Structure prediction request, 285 residues.
Amino acid sequence: MRYGLFCSLRDNTLSTNRTFRLASLCRERVLGTVAQNLEDLPRIMEFCVHREIGMFRLGNAVVPFASHTGFDPVWWEELEPLFERAYKRIEGCGVRLSIHPGQFIQLGSPKAEVVEASLRELAYAHRVLQWLGDDAQSVITLHVGAAYGDHHATMERFIQTFHAHSWLGRFLALENDEWHFSAAQTLEVANACGIGMIFDIFHHSINPSNICFKAIKASWGAKRPKLHISSQAPQGKRGMHADWIEPEDFRALLRFLGEDEKHVDVMIEAKAKEDAIMALRSQKW
Prediction:
């Protein structure tokens, strides 16, 4: 099993998620912020390699407001050399990259303008992963989205949109969520699209369904399966992530995986980040 770190180090001394206010969107702010994010990326990769962390999730804001209509496409010409330089520094490090666009991505929306905005954001995420190596194991993590009062109709719209834009299949994988689409429903959509399904065991505990890892594993084909784990925060609403992973939650994941536990990547969605990973490593499971 390989563990995953997301976005930044715990103390934010190294981060790929720096951003600014939309009102400040301009060429200079974009170039300067992206330069900072991409300067830290190789350092984070080195950190991960040194600590045997096999996966890293880029911050959504590695290029702030990249899909916003106020973002001038000409800026990409100046950003490309920054990505080329970052790629040369991380090439061959062996750390799997992913990115997780926000909850506003709704490919199953009944509103055309929402779908178009979602596609712009996914095209941005696609470009980032291409420019950082175009690795077949890289992943864009996405939820099916809101149900709009009819799960089946939303699933059908999602599938139709996916097949109308074949480029989505390069990196996209679908994660079950805690409120709208269960793991079984998400796997159904993933299979219809021919893409991997990311099992989030915390979301599954809130929004359960009948599913087994064998079926999830099959959705990945030649790719290594990716999963998520987190624990409930002791304070706050249901679904909030804790600083650490509770041992019993991790044991539940191991039981779910069975003999496949050594052949997956697990994103540790704990606020203590690398310290939570090290705490898991210290346990005798």
Summary: The chain has one domain: 2-282.
